[in-house]
Amino acid sequence: MIFNGGWTQTDRLALVAGNRPVTLSEVRAWVYLQSGQCLSGQVTAENRQQIIRMIAMEKLYQAATEFGKFELPPRIVRQALRVVDSSRGFRLLNTIHLRDCHVSLPLLEEVLRRELVAQHYIRSHSASVKPGEDALIVLASSLEPDIPVVNLLFHESQTKNKSVLGAIQPEKH
After folding, report:
1. Contact between 63 and 143 (Cβ < 8 Å)
2. Are 36 and 84 in contact (CB under 8 A)?
3. With 60 as the cut, is the pLDDT of residue 52 above it?
4. What pLDDT, in 10s, does the model give residues 113-159?
5. Gap between the terminal Cα atoms of the chain
6. Residue 17 contacts residue 27 (beta carbons within 8 Å)
7. Please, are residues 137 and 68 in contact by the beta-carbon 8 Å criterion?
C-alpha cells in the first residue's frame, strides 16, 4: 500500500501451523510476551528457541480448539495481561516499548489468549508428560502428524554443512 507517496511495510506470513497462517507480527508479539524484548532483525539462538516454543504453542492451541471454541472473555485476558506485566520482572504494557517492538496491544492480548488456551490444554493432558520433561514441547510433538508446520520465514539455510539462521528482512510493496 502506498501512503503519502512512500512505501509502507506489510505484515509477512512467517509460518503455517496446521491450517492457520501465523504472521511476523504475531511472532513479534509472542516473543515480546515471553521475554519483554523485541524480536531482533537477525534471528539469534534465543529467538530460534522462542519460535520453536511458539510453534508448539500454536499446535496445542489448534488441538484444544479442534472440537469447538474455547472462549475467554476479553476482561479475563486483560486481567491476565496485567498479572503477566507485573509478575515477570519486565513491563509489557509500556506503550513506547510496544511501539518500538512493532507490537500492538490488541495483538498482544490475542497472543496471550491463545497461550492461555494452550496452557489449559497442557494442564488437562499433563498426565502423559513425565516429570522433568517440557510439557509444551512433548505434547506438541505428539501432534506432529496431525498438525504439520510449514516454516516460511525462519528457515535454516545449509552453508558448509552448518545451519545458519538468516536475517528477517522487511518486505516493501
Report:
1. yes
2. no
3. yes
4. 999 999 988 988 888 888 888 998 989 888 877 788 888 877 664 44
5. 6
6. no
7. no
Residue-averaged pLDDT of the chain: 81
Angle at 143 (CA atoms; ends 138, 145), nearest 5 degrees? 130
Each residue's pLDDT tens digit, 76-90: 999 999 998 888 777
What nine digits make up the cell of 49? 528457541
Element (H, E) at 22: strand 20-23
CA dihedral 134, 91, 75, 58 (to 10 degrees): -30
Name residue 84's amino acid: V
Residue 27, class by beta-carbon neighbours within 10 Å (0-12 exposed, 13-18 middle, 19+ buried)? buried
Beta-ladder partners of 165: 156
User: Among residues 63, 57, 29, 52, which one has the least CA distance to residue 135?
Assistant: 57
Which distant-in-sequence residues (6+ apart) come within 8 Å of 64 by Cβ?
A: 70, 117, 118, 120, 121
CB neighbours of residue 145 within 10 Å: 6
Q: Which residues, at least 6 apart from 79, have a Cβ–Cβ distance to it below 8 Å? A: none
- CB proximity list for 75: less than 8 A, separation 6 or greater: none
- What pLDDT, on a 0 to 100 scale, did the predictor assign at position 8? 53
Residue identified by cell 498438525 is 147
Cell of 101: 517492538
DSSP state of 65: T
